[in-house]
Amino acid sequence: MKQFAINQATFLTSVGQGQSYPAPLPCEIAVVGRSNVGKSSLINCLTNNQKLARISQTPGKTRLINYFLLNNAFYLVDLPGYGFAKRSKDEQKDWGDFIGGYVASGRPKHLFLLIDIRHEPSQEDKQMFQWTLYSGVPFTLIATKADKISKSQRAVAANKAAKLLGAPPFAIPFSSEEKIGKDALMERIGQIYQDSVLQAERKTEEETEEDE
Length: 212
Ligand SMILES: Nc1nc2c(ncn2[C@@H]2O[C@H](COP(=O)(O)OP(=O)(O)O)[C@@H](O)[C@H]2O)c(=O)[nH]1
Ligand SMILES: [Mg+2]
Hints:
The protein is α/β, with parallel strands linked by helices. It is built from 5 helices and 7 strands.
């Protein structure tokens, strides 16, 4: 199979709580994880554009769902991070309602759950994982900042983080800085895209049959 490539990437729009989402496409992949875990860096790395998703130096600043259009065909979505200590209880609840609502909306066809390869997953990481299971949306675990761990220990550390999260013990070690795991992730995106398009086609066929 020809290797999947991202040839085009543009920022489309930001969606705040209560605002409407862009017209759906068959494939929408959302990037989830705590503030500072490396969501924006991952998007920039995959799209070869260091300026695409603004890499925030102030954790927790992003309160918006950012939509990127890739290959003029599918969405990659940057979700606001959690785990920002300065947030009030009300703000945390708002965040939960917003992200929980998005995940359960049927829009995302796949979630990239990011966890830091060096740290034990936080309570919020675990909660996000439980929401993911509950929503039934397929997911891939990605262990970020893999460049911080020696090469021989990367797979072990990534899988250990996944296990501590309560997930099957497998995560893709990834580094935006050193492009570790980029090929594996591109292949994954290619598969997800193909599956989503096939599923959408099947759904259209079913609907046409029902009309007849
Ligand atoms: N060493 C290392 N640092 C990274 C990596 N990815 C992101 N960072 C750093 O982590 C911080 C947060 O990254 P960012 O992408 O803004 O995280 P976000 O809040 O999840 O979007 C920034 O200072 C990045 O430079 C990585 O793969 N390796
Ligand atoms: Mg970010």
